[in-house]
Amino acid sequence: MSNTIYLGYYFKVEPQQPAVEILIAELGYAGFESFVETEEGVTAYIQKEEWNQSILEDIQILNSDEFEISFTFEEIEQTNWNAEWEKNFNPIVVDDACAVRAPFHEKFSVEYDIVIEPKMSFGTGHHETTHMMIQHILKNDFKDKSVLDMGCGTGVLAILAEKKGAKPIDAIDYDNWCYLNSLENVERNNCERITVIEGDASVLGKNNYDVIIANINRNILLQDMATYVSCLNKGGLLFLSGFYKEDIPVIQETCEKLMLKFREKLERNNWVALKFIN
């Protein structure tokens, strides 16, 4: 993968919300793999071999009168990306219990020490949604629970679930880069009860879980919620994040129509993470 060439698109967005969220969702459908929200908007990455000159033609929000969106783009070598990431990636500690760090950082004296090399994948713990999902996992019982980590990114949440005693665990992501990265990180953390799967909700079939974790954007959650719930055991827990406080009513309404009961909300910089029980 070291020779993979990416294109980086640097979008300036005004006003930023909900435009950035919509833009990320539409770019994801168009084939962009990874996103970093910035002070000005969002940076999006796509493999050069997946790119074509009309890649942005179907991105409807670019034609909206409600937002001003401009962009530039450039070719990025994967090695350059990794150098930038290593330069800027600082370790984090969540609730004095879980550290998320890179291999080149010193080990933390906390109960759960997780080593992640995210490369192009989403989920270092730095983003508010990942941070809150880690908090949810820390606060809840995972011992001997079967777990699904849907949209696993780097695999960090599945790894923490195993460290808290969960088994078996499925970690699923449709993005090939995330799939490969999760495999690496699962091995790096000596996890033995995690199965990493490349795909979307359609691969779930008749699997059943005690706990489902889904840190994905709002539109995918709404689209696939019924599939998640069909796989959730009675009394099972569903943790959702990847959306803003303003999205709670539509998320909650969808969950309650599927007979889920709301239990808890975490909030961080306008992002939220919700807990439901089946």
UniProtKB/TrEMBL annotation:
GO terms for cellular component: cytoplasm; ribosome. Keywords: Cytoplasm, Methyltransferase, Ribonucleoprotein, Ribosomal protein, S-adenosyl-L-methionine, Transferase. GO terms for biological process: methylation. GO terms for molecular function: protein methyltransferase activity. It is found in: Cytoplasm. Pfam families: PrmA. Its EC number is 2.1.1.-. InterPro entries: Ribosomal_L11_MeTrfase_PrmA, Ribosomal_PrmA_MeTrfase, SAM-dependent_MTases_sf. S-adenosyl-L-methionine binds at T130, G151, D173, N215. It comes from the Bacteria. It catalyses: L-lysyl-[protein] + 3 S-adenosyl-L-methionine = N(6),N(6),N(6)-trimethyl-L-lysyl-[protein] + 3 S-adenosyl-L-homocysteine + 3 H(+). Methylates ribosomal protein L11. Belongs to the methyltransferase superfamily. PrmA family. PANTHER family: ELECTRON TRANSFER FLAVOPROTEIN BETA SUBUNIT LYSINE METHYLTRANSFERASE. This is Ribosomal protein L11 methyltransferase. The gene is prmA.
